[in-house]
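Researcher: I'm comparing several assemblies side by side, and this is the next one on my list. It has 476 residues spread over two chains. Same procedure as the others: predict the full complex and return the structure.
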Amino acid sequence: MRIRNLVFLGIKNNMPETVLKHTIRTASTLVAFALAFTSLMTIVYQVTKAPIAQSEAKARIALFQQVVPHDRYDNNILEDTIGIAPSILLGNKKPTVAHIARKHGEPTAIILEAIAHDGYSGDIKLLVAINTNGAISGVRVLKHIETPGLGDYIDIAKSNWIKLFDNESLIKTSSGKWAVKKDGGKFDYMAGATITPRAVVNAVHKVLQFFEENKTTLFMPMTSLENSALEKPVQKRQHQKRKLKNESI
Amino acid sequence: MSQFKEITENGLWKQNPGVVQLLGLCPTLAVTTTVVNGVSLGLATALVMAASNGAVSPVRKFVPDEIRLPVFILVIAALVTVIDLLIHGFAQPLHKVLGIFIPLIVVNCNVLGRVDAFAAKNAPVPAIWDGFIMGIGLTLVLGLLGAMREVIGKGTLFSGLDLALGPNFKSAVLTVIPDYHGFLLAVLPPGAFLGLACLIAAHNWAEQRKTSKKATHSASGSLKPAH
């Protein structure tokens, strides 16, 4: 109110000076508020940084334990990683990080990330854990935007469908059977939503193929791993070309 | 005290943000697929509204009229960020459920609406109460709408409670209609519009009944002396 009066008086008397004063006052108020609340956010950010990182790590470990049972590893899965170059079989365009589970130093399983692009709506991001013998340890959907109540049963929070993949392998199920029942495969699906499970089955199948083609390099001893992680992109590009050729045939 | 009573009445019924003011429909419609989602977001909004009203009211005299909206939005955005960080750090499971909706509270016009309409003109304590009770009014609507959509859409109640409060609450999930195959429409966005329409209609009906009752009362009252 006081400010309004000032402006009002200003117009009557010496307008330029009061308008300037008023402008400065307004601007500095805005700046003061911006500074005060930015510092508040900075403080809270600093305070919550560690707990957030901690709870994120905890959530990731909980997720890993869903796909690789606790008694199958004794290493720090979070830190034991290997860089994976983009691959058509994994459906990713950016390099990802795979986590390796080891017991007594020996690898027991690898946890890969994959993306299915042919879901009903948007990409479906998957976490696939494969044992060293090529059998699936577990699959989980990390992220999806499938229709709620229809296609979202691939999510463990909604149904146990995703557990169908436990212990599956390329040996156990022949290539032609890696499909939903409707397409002549062996995997069950829920009526009304076939596109979603079809995408997931295909993606998991392709991850197994990726594993089969790369298993020697994936489980290389720790020391040589660090060197090879850098060389990987070249190697993977060749592999992609090969895959493309296969598809064009 | 009467001021608080009036604020409470306004927030919960007369000026209910969910069914009367119809502000902030985006979260109302998007989140209410289950009771738990609706109520959690409602409570988070109530918290933000109380905090932002409380933050704006004491400084209301220092904020020139021309820049009040930028300042208010700044305050709200900062508070939401702070609450988001705190929930992320100390209540990770809840953050997983509400994660994407919390930043959306910034653009919920309920918050800015109450700050501008109430906190900018009133003392801190009533302002905090107003923000909180408006948020509770919204929570009630979100909870009701969530319950309607969940029961009709999935045949359950309180699903996801374990995600918000811990695995001990898994048994609290009620299956209202066993062997129910679901009615998808209720879960999809159109179900939200239809459900909200029903709630608004119910509110209007109750309001109308109240006023018509009052009218007949006063009418018969005024007739009596004539007898």
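Model: For your comparison table: Chain B has one domain: 2-216.
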